[in-house]
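Pilot study result, target chain (376 residues):
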Amino acid sequence: MTASASARGLLFAIALSASAAPASGEPHRVFVAGDSTASAYPPERAPREGWGMRLQPYLADGWEVRNHAQSGRSARSFIEQGWLDGIARELRRGDVLLIQFGHNDAKVEDPARYNDPAVAYPHWLMRYVSVARGRGATPVLVTPVARRKFDGTQLLDTHGPYPQAVRDLAAREDVALVDLTASSMHWLRALGDAASKPYYLHVPAQKQADDTHFSEAGARAIACLVASGWRAADPRAPVTPVEAADCAAIAAPAPPGVSPSVVVSERDIALEQPGPHQGEGTTTSYPFFADATGFDIVFRKRALHPGATIGAHLNDKDEIYYVLSGRGELTLNGDVREVGPGDAILTRSGDRHALRQRGEDDLVIFIVFDEASRSR
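Predicted structure:
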């Protein structure tokens, strides 16, 4: 090749790159493809936030976040429902695509979302990598963020082989990797069980005890870990200098103070409601101490009026029913029996049960459970 031909080729490459790049003054974009741990939420869902909502402050000047993460999606369902197509239509040369899935890919009970970690999961993740590279953008793989699951002082790994599948794919395809599983687990271990709770959705006033999704402080801390991990993986990454120690220094708001002792009359709190869990008929609920803070015990009274039921459902917590008056028919894990005054019923997390009022009198029960035992 002659020198003039080489120069023409170089000029053509520069022209081609410029034509695909953003126009002067337009920002480069960081697209986020992911699940509910990254997605955006409207104000009425506060304080629930995804880490994608808090990533912008960590980006360099001239870069902006485009958060396309969607709640409940796996790497597969995000594509099959057309969300990746929406990103692909916007991607330009020089943009970045952050890719974080795994929470829903492991749901073997849901064939629309499940991806086995050995084959299907990396296969679907590779689709995102290919789309980004095909449009001149840079893919960045992110392992799934840790759930807050402690057994005493030990933090449990709830993602099994899925993070390693992402690590292996990143190494095999030479893709930058943010090991958010590792960094978020290290962050949680350093905080410990009690101190980490405010970073997740533990909101007694909203009856939430969620160890998967984040409060504002949690979203900020995880976004910081994403930025720190990205910069460590690629020193040229368009993020401001930030270290994991900076992320650990992000403070959560102090938990609400312990509310004072109080006497409540059930006539002041009675609520007419349909049968819970898509049950039949009408009931009256008495949510005692619903606004109290400083403990996780939930204590309720419910009257099932004639014909009412608590619909069949799978428990996400340990729960006790105590029958005050009336008669009922309990179905517990397929077994059916009559219950009446003085009967106490313990149902465990994972049990399936339903309760039907019988006879002419209301079936009146107390319901007690520990909000902290709710599984996610």
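One observation from the pilot: Residues 1-19 have pLDDT under 50 and may be disordered. A full batch analysis is planned for the follow-on phase.
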